[in-house]
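Chapter review: from sequence to fold.
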Amino acid sequence: MGKLKTLFGLLIAACITAPPFVLGPALVFGCFLCSAEARAEGTGAEASQGDRPVTPETYFINAAGTGAGTLLRGGETPEATPPATGTQRPKAAAQEPLLKPPGDAAGNKPATEAVRDKPAGQAARSRPAKPAPAPPGHEAATRGASETRITKLGFSVKGNRTCLIFDAEGAKPKEIGPPSDVGISVFFSQIGVKLPDKVFKDGKVAAKEVKFRRESGFFEVMFREKNTLVASQVRPGKNGKYTLTLELTPPGKTALPQGVDGKPASESAGKSVEKAPPIEVKKVETSELFVSKVSQQIRNAVVNAQALKEGEAQRTAGLASKPRAFAEPDANGLALYASANEKFENCSRNLVFCASDIIDAYDEALKAGPLSSQAPLAMYRSAIAQFIMGNYSKADKLFRQVTSGWPDHPVASRCWVGIGDIYNKRQSYLEAMEAFRWALRGASEKDDKAAAYYELGKVYLLLGANKESLEMLENCIGQQPDYYTKKPDVFRFIGEANFALGNMEISKQHLLRYVNYQQNAPDQDIILAKIAEIFLTQGELEAAKKLYAFVQKYYTDSEGDLVCRIRQGELTEKEDLDQAINIYEDLRSKDLSPSLRRIVLMKLAGLNLKRCDLAHSLELMDEAFPAKNDGSSPPGTAALRERILCDLVKQYFSDKDFVKVVQLHDKYRRVFDSIQSPDVMEQVAESYASLKFYSNALPIYDKLIAKGQRKGDDLLLRCASYALRLNDNGRSFQYCKLVQSDAADLKKSEMLGHIYYRDRKYADAVKSFGKVFDKVKGFELDDPDSFAAYGYCLFQAKRFDEAIAVFQKAMLRAKSDDTYGRCSILLTLSKCFAEQKQFSKAAETMETAIEASGEEQKNELLYEIAKLYIAAGQTDKAIGSLNRIKATEQPFWSAVAQQQLNSIDMSQASAVR
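The C-alpha cell string follows.
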C-alpha cells in the first residue's frame, strides 16, 4: 500500500503541473495503474476509510467530469454532484463521498431497510429490501417450470477462488443475491428435491456452509470471510437440466479470468492481409444492443395504462368503507407484540435468515390481539417475511387485510407497495401500476410518497415508457432528495430512462453514481457497458476501450461483457477483418440472449459477405432470421439478405451453375420478389431458360419489361423464342410485334416464320423465312430448327427444289441424338425427291430414315421403300425390302409383303409371255 500512496502522490503532483490537454489521459493512466498496484498489494474490505480498498468492483468515477479523465481509481474521492433532476441534494449529502467501497456504510447495507413511519414506543422499523430488478431486457431470473430439483453439489478450489457447482433441473433461479456481508441466497419458485446441508471443513474453501430450505424455495451459502465477492453463471444443458455455478473470491483478492480454452483472455488471433471487396457493415444501434426482453404486447399495454386517471378513482371491490375499530389486548398480548417487534428489529439486517421465526411470533401476537392498534404493522411485517420467503399468496393476503381493514392507516400505503411488488413478480405490470397508484394516493409522508413514485418509475421503465418513468423517478427525488441512500437503484433507473431517451450526458452522470454507490450490485456489467456506450457515442473512444477491457477482465462472459465485445468487434472491423470475425465467432459460441445472438450472426453474415464467403454468409443470415413464407424480414435485415442473394446469383451464373441459381430463387422466391436489381433478375430468368424451364423464365422477364427495367429488341426476341418453345404462339407473336428496329428485322422475320408455320400459314411462313434466307443463306435458331420448318413450308408450297436444298442444310446441323427430328427431315426430303420423280433418291433417303426410326415404323417405311424402288424400276431392291418385312414375322405386314411379291411375280410372268 505504501507503493500505491507514493505512486499516487507522484501522479497528483504531475497532474497539478501538467497542462490541461494532458491532464485527463495522465489521470486515467494513473488510475488504472494504481488499481493494478492495489490489487497486487491485496487490499481488502478490512482497510480503513482512509485507505479505501480497491477491488474489481471499486471504481472511483467522477460523474461531473467528461472524457477519459472521468475514470478514477484508487483512493481518490471526487466531489459528488447533485442529480440532474431539477432538485438539489442537501449539503450533508454533497459533502458525503460519492463513491464508497464494498463494506462501508453504503456497501454493507442490511437485507431490509427501515420502515418509513415510527409508531410510538418503537425505535426503528424495517421493511425488506428487494434486490433491485434488472433493467428491461436484463432480468436475472430465468423463468421455466415452477419446480426446481437440485440433484448434485460439487466444488473446486483454484487458488483463492472456490467454485460451487449445483446440478439442477426444472425452473432456473428467480433471483441470485445480492450478497450480504456474511452470505448469499439463491431464490427459486419452489424446490422439490433438495440435498442435505453441506459444511465445508477445509479452510481453503471460501464457503463455510450451504443450507437448503425446500419449504422456503431458496438455499443459502455462508461465507468463511465477510464481504466475499460472488459471481454467478447458469449454463443450460439438455432436457431442462442446467448447471448453476457460484464463484466465491475472498475480499481484496481478484482472480484473473481465462478464456474457454484455458488461455489468457487477452490472447488474440493474428491479423490477416486478405483484402475484401468494398462493403459497409452497419454499426449496431444502441437500442438493439440494450433491447428490452419485455414483449411488445406488454409494451403496448402502456398506452392503456397511461389513459388511467391519476386522481382518485373508485376503490376496488372488497375495500371497507370504514376502518375497523381497535381493541387493545391484555398484557400478555401486548408482550407478544413487543417480543415480535423486537425479533423483527434485531433481524432487520438479514431478515431472510429468521423470517420463519418472525412469522410465528407475529401470528401468536395477532391471535392474542387481532384488533390491536399494532395489528396493521404486525400484518405488514409478517407479510414482508412471507414475501422474503417467496410465499407470495400469503403475503398478498396479509397486505390486503391491512388495506381493506385499515385503509387510512399509514402502513396501508406500504402494503399497497407490497401488493404491487407481488404483481411485478407475476409479471402483471398493469395491476402493479394500479397498486402503486393506490400507495401514492394513501401516502401521507414524503418518504412513503417517494417510495410509491420510485416503484411506479420502475414499472414504467420495465414497460418501455421511459418518459413517464423519468417523471416518476424525478418526483421521487423531489419528495426525498437523499432517497438514493435507501435505494441506490434510483440513480440507475434515472440513468436507464435518460439512456433510452438519448440524454446521454445526464444518463452517464447517474449511471456513474450508481456503480460507485452500489459497487456490489449484480448487474454492474451491463451498467458499465452502457457507460462505455455513452463514451463511444460522445466520441471518447479511449475511455470506452478502457471500460471494455475492464468489463471483459472482471465480468467475463456476462451480458455486459458480450455487449462490450460486440463493440470491440466493430472497432476491429476496419483494421483487421479476420480478427473481427474471430471475435464474433467466439461470441457465437457463448450462451447469448436471442437478441444478442441475432446481432452477432448478422455481424458475421455481413463480414463474410465482405470476405466473399457468400454461401456461409447466407447460412448465418438464415440462422439469425429464417426466411419467412411471406418474404417479410425484420427491420434492417432485408437489405443484407438481398445483397447476399444478389452476389450469390452473380457468382453461380458466372460459373454457369444454373441449377444453384434456380434452387436459390426457388427457396427465397418471396425475397427475390422485392429485389430491385434487373441484372440479377435477368440472370435468374436466363438460368431458368438455360435449363429449359421457360415457363419460369417468362414471368420474370414480363415483370422486368413492365417496370421498364429491361428493354431492347434482343430481349423481346428471346422472350418470343421461349414462348414459341412453350407452343404459346400468340404470346410469341405479341413479343415480336414490340420489336421495331431495322437491325432486328431478320431475327423478327425468322421468328414470325415459325409462328406462321405453327399456325399452318405456309405461304406467310415461306415469305418470312425466305426474307432471311435470301439475305444471309442461314438461320440463327436451331431450337426449334428454322431450316426444318422452312423446308416443310416449301414442301407444302410445292416448291420442291428449294425444299430439297433447305432440308439438306437442316440435316447438316441436326443433332445426332435427335432421332425424331432427323427422321422427320429425311422422310419429308424423300417425299420431295418422289414428287420430282427421283424415286431412287427418294428410296435411298428413306432407307437412311429407317436408321433413325423406331421399330414400330420400320415395316411401314420398308414397304414405302419397296414401292419407290418399283417405281424406279429397281425390282430386285424392292424384293429385298419386302423380304425384310417378311423376316419380322408380323402377320399383317408379312401378308402385305407377300401380296406385293405376288404382284411383282405376276408382272414379271406377264412380261415373259
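Two observations follow directly from the output. The chain has a mean pLDDT of 77. Residues 530 and 621 are 27 Å apart (CA to CA).
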